[in-house]
C-alpha cells in the first residue's frame, strides 16, 4: 500500500527552501538518511571518482511499492509528514520530500526497490527529471544509483573539486551518519576498494572505537546527563590530549549531525582555565531532545537547529561538562620530555648566579647587562625547535625496534599516506597498516613522549586546509611539531635550563619571534628604562 503523499501548498510554504545538492557528499547524505528512515540495518555506499561518476546506496530497509517508487521523485513527495503539526514533531531524518526530486533534476538516477515482504519490485530510470525506463524486477530493499552528477549543469560541475577532495567529503558524511547511528552497519567502497567497513555496534562508545581506535577512545571521558527535556551522552577530551585543530568536534541532535555555535561555545567555556591557549578539545556530543523543543526546519541541508530555550541548552551543556572536568582535575598539559631537548648542548656553561623571576606561568623576567629582558619560555622554545626542524640536521630519527601503530580517522589516514614522502623529511617514516592504521617505523627521538597521533592528525588538517607550497608546508609542519613539543607554561625551569634556553635562542636565525610571529623576548636596556622614567 502506498505511503507517500505530495504535501499541500500551505505546508510547502513553511518549508525552508534552498539548494539541497551541492556536491556528491550531499547526495550520499540524503540517500543514507533515506535508508536510515527506511529502518535499514545495513547500508552499502559505493562511489566512483569521488562520487562524480557514480554513487550507489543500497539498503535492506522497508522499500517502496511501484506507486510510491514513481511518486518519490515528485517535489514535496514524502511519507514522513502530513500536516503542520508534524513539522514540529519530527522523528525522521527526512521530512520535506525534496531530496530525490533535487537529485533527479541534476543527475541520472536508477532506483530499484520492492516493498518489504513482497517479491514484486520495480526499476525506474530518470535522467534530468525525465522518466526513461519503468520495469518490473524482483528486489530486496532499495538501491539508488546516481550517475554523472551535474551532467546537465556544466557550470556547477566545474565547481566540483578533485576526486580525492570530493571523496574526503563523502568519508566525512558517512562517518557522521555512522557515529549517530551506531546500530546500523555501514560499508563504503571507493573505486572498488573497501574504504570503511563498520559493523553494527551496541553503543556510541563502541562506534567511536570502530572509527578511531581504542587509543583515541582512551583519551576521552564519557559523560551522561539527563533531565526531563533532554539527555546528553558525550565523549570529551580528558587529561592533556588536546588538539591543535578542531578536527574532531561533533554535535548530534536527535541523531542529526549539526553545527551549532552556541553549543560549541558552551563546551569551550567549560574548559576555561583547563584548555591551553590555541588548543582544542575533541568532543562528540549526542543530544536527545524532545522534538517539540527544537525547530529543524531552519536550513535546507538541515545542518542547523533552532532551540526554544537557548539559555537552557547553553547552561545544560556548560554545567554538565564543567562539573565532570573539575571533578577529574585535569593537569594543564605539557610535554614531559622538554628538559632533554634543552640540555643537548654540551657547550653549555654553567652560570650559577642568575637573577630571574616568573611572571605568571610562562614569562620570565631576567636582568641582563644592567637591563631587563622579559622572556616567553614557550615562544622561545618553539623558535628553537622550529629552526632545528627546518635545518633538518637535528632530526635524529630512530628506527623503532617495535613500530608504533597509530589509528587515525579515515580522512586523516589517507591524507598522511598520500603525503608520506614529505613527512620523511621530518624523520617520520610511516607505512600503511590497513584499516586506518599507520605503522610508524621511525620518528625523531625527541618525539618519543609526544602525542604522535595528535601530531599526525594536525599535520593532516594542515594539508587538508590549503594548498601550501612544499616550502610553506614544511614551515607549517615544523611550527606545529615545535608547538606540540615545546615547553608549556606552568613548568618552572631551573636557572641552568633558562640559561640554556637563552643560549639556544641566541643561536637561532630569527631569535626574536616564535614561528607564529609573536615575540620570544622583549628587552629594555638601562637607557630605555631611564627614558621611561624621563631620566636622561
Ligand atoms: P524525504 O526523505 O524528505 O521524505 P526524499 O525525497 O528523500 O524525501 O524521499 C521521498 C520519499 O521516498 C520518502 O519519504 C520515502 O517514502 C521514499 N524513500 C526514499 N528513499 C527510500 C528508501 N531507501 N527506502 C524506502 N523508501 C524510500
Ligand atoms: Mg530524504
Q: What are the low-pLDDT stretches, counting only 5+ consecutive residues below 50?
A: 329-334, 336-353
- Number of DSSP E strands: 24
Radius of gyration: 28 Å
Structural class: alpha+beta
Name of the CATH homologous superfamily of the largest domain: Histidine kinase-like ATPase, C-terminal domain
CATH topology of the largest domain: Heat Shock Protein 90
Estimate nothing, just give the exact number of structural domains: 3
The CATH first-level class of the largest domain comes to Alpha Beta
Q: How are the strands ordered across the major sheet?
A: 7-6-5-8-3-2-9-10
Shape: elongated
Number of helices: 18
Termini gap: 97 Å
- Bin the helical content: 25-40%
Strand % is: 15-25%
What does this structure look like?
The chain is α+β, with helices and mostly antiparallel strands. It is built from 18 helices and 24 strands. Helix content is 34%, strand content 25%. Helix 9 packs parallel to helix 10. It is elongated. The termini are far apart. Bound molecules: adenosine-5'-diphosphate and magnesium ion (MG). The site of adenosine-5'-diphosphate has 25 residues, from helix 2, strand 4 and helix 4.
Amino acid at each position: 500500500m502506498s505511503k507517500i503523499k505530495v504535501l499541500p501548498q500551505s505546508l510547502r510554504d513553511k518549508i525552508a527552501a534552498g539548494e539541497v545538492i551541492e556536491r556528491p557528499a550531499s547526495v550520499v547524505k540524503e540517500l543514507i538518511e533515506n535508508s536510515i528512515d527506511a529502518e535499514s540495518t545495513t547500508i552499502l555506499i559505493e562511489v566512483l571518482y569521488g562520487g562524480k561518476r557514480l554513487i550507489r546506496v543500497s539498503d535492506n530497509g522497508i522499500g517502496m511499492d511501484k506507486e510510491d517508487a514513481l511518486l518519490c521523485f515528485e517535489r514535496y513527495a514524502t511519507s514522513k509528514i502530513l500536516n503542520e503539526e508534524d513539522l514540529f514533531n519530527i522523528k525522521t531524518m527526512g521530512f520535506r520530500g525534496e531530496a530525490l526530486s533535487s537529485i533527479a533534476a541534476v543527475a541520472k538516477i536508477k532506483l530499484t526497490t520492492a516493498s518489504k515482504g513482497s517479491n514484486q519490485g520495480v526499476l525506474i530510470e530518470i535522467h534530468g527529471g525525465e522518466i526513461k525506463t519503468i520495469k518490473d524486477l524482483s528486489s530486496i530493499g532499495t538501491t539508488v544509483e546516481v550517475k554523472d552528477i551535474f551532467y546537465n549543469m556544466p557550470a556547477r560541475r566545474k565547481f566540483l573539486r578533485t576526486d580525492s577532495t570530493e571523496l574526503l567529503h563523502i568519508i566525512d558524511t558517512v562517518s557522521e551518519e555512522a557515529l549517530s547511528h551506531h546500530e546500523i552497519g555501514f560499508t563504503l567502497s571507493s573505486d572498488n576498494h573497501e574504504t570503511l567497513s563498520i559493523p553494527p555496534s551496541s553503543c556510541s562508545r563502541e562506534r567511536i572505537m570502530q572509527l578511531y581506535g581504542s587509543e583515541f577512545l582512551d583519551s576521552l571521558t564519557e559523560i551522561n546527563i539527563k533531565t526531563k527535556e533532554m539527555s546528553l551522552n558525550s565523549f570529551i577530551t580528558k587529561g592533556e590530549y588536546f588538539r591543535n585543530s578542531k578536527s574532531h568536534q561533533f554535535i548530534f541532535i536527535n541523531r542529526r549531525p549539526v553545527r551549532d555555535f552556541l553549543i560549541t561555545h558552551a563546551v569551550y567555556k567549560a574548559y576555561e582555565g583547563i584548555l591551553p591557549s590555541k588548543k582544542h578539545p575533541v568532543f562528540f556530543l549526542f543530544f536527545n531532545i524532545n522534538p517539540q523543543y527544537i525547530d529543524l526546519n531552519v536550513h535546507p541541508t538541515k545542518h542547523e537547529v533552532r532551540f526554544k530555550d537557548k539559555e537552557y541548552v547553553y547552561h545544560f551543556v556548560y554545567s554538565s561538562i564543567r562539573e565532570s572536568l573539575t571533578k577529574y582535575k585535569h593537569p594543564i598539559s605539557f610535554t614531559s620530555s622538554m628538559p632533554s631537548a634543552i640540555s643537548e648542548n654540551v657547550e653549555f656553561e654553567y652560570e650559577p648566579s642568575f637573577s630571574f623571576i616568573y611572571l605568571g606561568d610562562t614569562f620570565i623576567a631576567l636582568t641582563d647587562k644592567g637591563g631587563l629582558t622579559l622572556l616567553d619560555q614557550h615562544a622561545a622554545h618553539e623558535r628553537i625547535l622550529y629552526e632545528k626542524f627546518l635545518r633538518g640536521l637535528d632530526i635524529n630519527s630512530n628506527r623503532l625496534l617495535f613500530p608504533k601503530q597509530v589509528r587515525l580517522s579515515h580522512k586523516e589516514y589517507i591524507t598522511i599516506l598520500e603525503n608520506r614522502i614529505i613527512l620523511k623529511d621530518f624523520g617520520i617514516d610511516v607505512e600503511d597498516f590497513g584499516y586506518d592504521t599507520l605503522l610508524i617505523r621511525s620518528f625523531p627521538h625527541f618525539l618519543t613522549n609526544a602525542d604522535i597521533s595528535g601530531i599526525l592528525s594536525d599535520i593532516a588538517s594542515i594539508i587538508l586546509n590549503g594548498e601550501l607550497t612544499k616550502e610553506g608546508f614544511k614551515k607549517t609542519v615544523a611550527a606545529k611539531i615545535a608547538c606540540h613539543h615545546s615547553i608549556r607554561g606552568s613548568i618552572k625551569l631551573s636557572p641552568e635550563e633558562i640559561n640554556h634556553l637563552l643560549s639556544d635562542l641566541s643561536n637561532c636565525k630569527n631569535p626574536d619571534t616564535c614561528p607564529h610571529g609573536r615575540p620570544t623576548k622583549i628587552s629594555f636596556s638601562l637607557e630605555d628604562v631611564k627614558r621611561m622614567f624621563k631620566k636622561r
